[in-house]
Predict the 3D structure of the following.
Amino acid sequence: MAKGVIYLVGAGPGNPGLLTLRAKELIEKADTLVYDYLVHPTFLQFAGPNCESIYVGKKAGRHSVSQEEIERLLVNHAMQGKAVVRLKGGDPFIFGRGSEEVRALQKAGVDFEVVPGITAAIGASAYSGTPLTQRGVNATLVIVTGHEDPEKAESMIDWKSLPQENAAICIYMGVSKLPGIIDELLDAGFAQDTPIACVEWATMGHQRVCRGKLGTIVESVKSFKLQAPSIIIIGENAAMGEELSWFEKKPLQGRRLVVTRSQGQASELSQKLELLGAEVIGLPLIEISKSIDPETQKDVFDELGSYDWLVFSSPNGVRFFFEAFFETFNDIRSLGFIRIAAVGQSTAKEIEKFFVSVEVIPEEANADSLADALVETGSMDSAKVLVVAGNLGRETLYRRLDEARAIVDKFVVYKTEPTDLSDHPSAKMFREQGADAIIFTSSSGVKSFVDQVGSLKLEEGALHPKTISIGPITSASMQEQGMPVDLQAKEASLDSLVEGIIKRFGKGQ
């Protein structure tokens, strides 16, 4: 068998939006994905269904796999003819031991490619408002490790040779040894009042920045309870953070929120929250997929011109209906003169993407309100109504329309199924770190969470989340399961949900 190829790929400093296009392309095509501790779980979702994901993370004091084992693993998978992505936090060649892995691949005669990533110093600089270079202030940048090989007899770092003026010094992995590092710098002649900024979890929603002076930073960091991973930036530019900071001003910066929608649905809500500065953990508690009986589809589309009303009960129904519609028809005008109703604003927006007008949208996004709005049109008596829904659609709407003497047909276009999160990387992150809040947007998501609560049990020290509901139906399901509802959106829509989250968890709240 022909040898495969190893791609050493930098995953960036942590924020999912900072992954390169080349990195995403390679992950999508990989046969094997070998990833580190600081790799965000979102990246793993780009991998194909047949990709084997292998965790080889190294955390302070806890190495799941030795460096030698990682190198053997890479070579073995390449020898099987596989395309292997070695996904490393930051950049592979900046304190990432990428060169060691490249040498092992060269020795084995394995082809490789190195894909750079945004290194932690660059991410910490940009997201803390601390420029690494500044015209008229400094033209030198020094990158230093604060964690050398513990087996070495002597340090390779000559602290006394580091420039004390007109320079910025970035120290990686130096939190645990910060007092000793500061002593070295002061002994080397650095001034006590030299500005310093310590950026914890740079670029992430729960990023924190501890700013101060060399002479007092050790005590400040102790009271701040600074933890790894952190980047330490020293020099005159480190004092500019208060002035140039932008990320810390976002209303949800510092908050970690869990989104429990299906993988396909979560992106819109996650993006809204991330733009506001939040870190989002995606727990896809349910899986939504297209599911249409071919005979039913043929019958519905053959008789489409005979329906008076086309009623959508969810955005998912809209997406899967029109996907099937355009498999049969090539012109939106094939809908004819049918009148259209949507359960709420989110569903209506999805319909309007196809340049179709929605005639009925109730004020409250639930089945009873939709039925009331349809009945109020005075057109239900003997009307032929097609309701597009999923396999778990409630019977309320059908019963109410039937009572109004409508002739109702149900068209199931998707199915909702629970997922297994026991080995999911996002579930691991949630167990380890917890969150400020967990957001539920469906009754099926609530049930799946309760069914899997054992595999989602928080570890000691993790932040226990508040619970958020998108609307009354989801809230009722939460209460039925004995779950508190700490916040419910005023309207059952993503915009209203996000507005409520800002009011409850935003800066100053």
Notes: The two ends are 61 Å apart (CA to CA). The mean pLDDT is 91.
